[in-house]
């Protein structure tokens, strides 16, 4: 038998430390989280808020969160599927929807703390760089740190749309415009970089989606009907895109709470294992049985199995 070198001894495994669960699942970057959560000792346990941005396959989710020993506490949240209440029924995961979601979350946060009248944010959306801390106010603005999770912070990503929406909504989120759409870095050393605010504005109002819709409509109507079937069902075409987002921004600023779902006054009556609802539907719900009854049930099953085995042997 050939010589096998032992690379990991018993001592290695005795000292092996298992990583945190969310690290094992690949969900949390704890190096980044520690940086964002750690608070200075001389600030005496003041809350350190994070503006959390996450994207799923169907929507954009934004939250304002602070960390405690018990876990993260959510102050305010907004998801892009809520934009339906503000006049954006479809397209809940593009750049324009991310901007509107960030704006909605910012206005809700400021309203919760009673700061919505003091910090209006930027009401004229022109894509220009904006920092609310540069304005003269008696009170300091509400500060958050951007938390993007495991996402790559590449130029033009949708997360920057959510950030821009939160900043224009009145939150103080430290940032620069280097990753915004329309930014061009200096080609040579000594030259100045360029930021095209108009290009960013077009993204905020969904012009890139509008152009794609127009192109498909002309070149491939069948593909257009398949790709934008939900837009067509809602009666939204390329010409209505900008107006839709403009009206939504105005509604969010007027009242960010949104429409609350009406409670359904449904009563239930139980008939043995059937639950009959007042709206005519029925549901099966098993009756709870005692420990003694469960033991009897198990014993009866064991006895039946044993009896069957005896019959097979005979």
Walk me through this protein's architecture.
- There is one protein chain.
- With 314 residues, the protein is α+β, with helices and mostly antiparallel strands.
- Helix content is 37%, strand content 13%.
- Helix 7 crosses helix 8.
Order of helices and strands: HHHEEEHEHEEHHHHHEEEH
Estimate the global geometry from the Cα principal axes.
Answer: extended
Query: Radius of gyration, Cα only, in angstroms?
Result: 28 Å
Helix content: 25-40%
Spatial order of the strands in the main sheet? 3-2-1-4
Structural class estimated from helices and strands: alpha+beta
- Quantity of strands, as a count: 9
Task: List the quaternary state of the chains.
Answer: single chain
End-to-end C-alpha gap: 54 Å
Largest sheet: 4 strands, mixed
In round numbers, the mean pLDDT is 93
SS summary, helix count: 11
How much of the sequence lies in strands comes to 5-15%
Low-confidence stretches: none
